[in-house]
Amino acid sequence: MRDGIEPRVAVADWPVLSYGFRPFFLGAALFAGLAVPAWIVMLAVGIGSTGLGAPREWHVHEMLFGFLPAVITGFVLTAVPNWTDRPAIKGRLLLTLFTLWFAGRIVLALSWFPPLLSAAVDMVYLLALALVLWREIVGGKSWAHAPIAVLISLYAVSNVLFHSAALNGAATDVPERMALALDMTLLTFIGGRVTPNFTREFLVQARRPEKPARFSQLDMAAIGFVAFASTLWAIFPQGAMAGWGLILAGAVNLVRLARWYGWLTWREPLVFVLHWGYAWLTLALLLLGCAALGLGLPQEDAVHALTTGAVGVMTLGIMTRASLGHTGRPRRADMATVAMYGLVTCGAIIRVFGPSVGLPTNALLSVAALSWSGAYLFFALVYGPYLLRPSLDE
């Protein structure tokens, strides 16, 4: 400081741009908290046009290719330094990635821009993310994590296919199911890594003799079954092969989950929520498999067991733990954090099972949306200051 004047801090040095989880977790939370209620309003007042045409198409795309990629980006960019022993992606490059993501959300929410331009702006983000991730993995020779880069690359391709179908007026939802299949595989891969690792850490600290099973051929089979069955379902959503494949994948992953001793972590919601999220994933696999066979819940409700249940719970679990740990705060869930987990769970339960018990559609969607999106707005309110300010240990 000179002459009592504080030196100006360059944009690249802002705390929010010091790690990938900071801007992307906050952006994802705010977007989820606003976009879902916005879709309910569109339905209520009859708004018929967005940057992607019908509100339903906008809602599907923005949850699959807007909200979830932001969470994935925050997680991956934060984990990359540990995977590759390379410096964290921060500053101007991080700001560029976030700007690309945010630009996609703006152009697709409004019908002011030519459809081709809107699609091009949105497609750039995931392609850029895949390119950056490949650069880091190749540069650090971290080939064990190449599957994550492959899955994100395929996610970028499915977004391109989604836009291509929309621009050509093709009546196909294959790109949508491709993204859902990739979501299932990513959750199986990432959730199957972080959940037992954090559980092992908790049980060691609690001086419990039980330990989650180490990664084995069963885990490889669990991931493989999900990848194969979900891909089959993406192409042939109704049929015996896809149905029984998803049911088998759900059963194997249920066995996998049981080997992690999740019930012993109930005293620490920050760990237990990851097991709860993975349980939602196994339920989603089973419900989708039954739906493909013409049994149980309709496919739309089964899909929401994946999106509102597994994705909702798992993402909040990862976002809260990473935000606390990487900002120098104790990794313990307070009452506000537990309330977030409760809200997202209630929203998922109402959305998935509400239609089957005959609840009024408009009321059901409104309550489920407010509960689910409210969890993310609450995250932004409570955790936003942590993400915008320097870490406590700096």
UniProtKB/TrEMBL annotation:
Top-level taxon in the UniProt lineage: Bacteria
Keywords for the protein's UniProt record, in alphabetical order: Membrane, Transmembrane, Transmembrane helix
TM regions (residue ranges): 24-48, 60-80, 92-110, 116-134, 146-166, 178-196, 217-236, 242-258, 270-297, 303-324, 336-357, 363-388
High-level lineage: Bacteria, Pseudomonadati, Nitrospirota, Nitrospiria, Nitrospirales
Xref: InterPro entries: NnrS
Stated name of the protein: NnrS protein involved in response to NO
Keyword Endoplasmic reticulum: no
Key word Chloroplast present: no
